[in-house]
Amino acid sequence: MGLSSRFRKKTKPRLPDGVRVYAIGDVHGRADLLQSLLTVIDADLARSAPERAIQVFLGDYVDRGPDSRAVLDLLIERSKSHETVCLKGNHEVFLLEVLKDPARLQEWRHYGGLLTLVSYGITPTMNPSAEQQVELIEGLKRAIPPEHLAFLQQLPSSFTCGDFFFVHAGVKPGIALDRQKDEDLLWIREEFLASEERFGKYIVHGHTPVSAPDIRPNRINIDTGAYATGNLTLLTIQGDSLLAI
């Protein structure tokens, strides 16, 4: 899916010469889909060999889907051999908060957190007591490899390259990009989605599921609800050309 000529003529956000960005939307435990897209990227890199390739992942690696642990394994391994930027999503933040406060387990389940527990070999009961909640989270602490915890704790909230600003959820209208608060970068929806403001950079984001990449003059949403639809979107950017598949 390419950008319309109308969009391109009006704005033409660009990457620096020689740079190609591969951006991937919300994975949510779908390690199988992530692996497929990494294979696509590798084939493209082998075929065209850009001067510099940056792979940007827009957050929400865990919860909802079946294999959060494997997703983190893939991302950590990927970062060892490729230039990657793994952004923070609200689900990563919530996982870290649950590890500190087991009482939030019941809230976490509404975000699909029990599937994350299962991916680490922990089987929760349907309605765990307060004592059981503590036991489950203690078990999760023991099961999470140190490299997973370090990965989660070090995720940045945004990434800028050329005329593009990559973020999980979006930005707060009327606030400069360098003054945005994490709460908005990770959680914002309606106020951002309804805005026609030009934010100073072209925003590439996820967080709010759409049936197909949603291309607007000021932003593109590439969260296509992978955990439910089986469609994980890859956006390729080079120069002023955008292609979503």
Automatic annotation (TrEMBL):
Domain Calcineurin-like phosphoesterase per the UniProt entry, residue ranges: 20-211
Signal peptide coordinates: none
Pfam families cross-referenced by the UniProt entry: Metallophos
Protein name, UniProt field: Serine/threonine protein phosphatase
Source species of the chain: Bradyrhizobium agreste
Top-level taxonomy: Bacteria, Pseudomonadati, Pseudomonadota, Alphaproteobacteria, Hyphomicrobiales
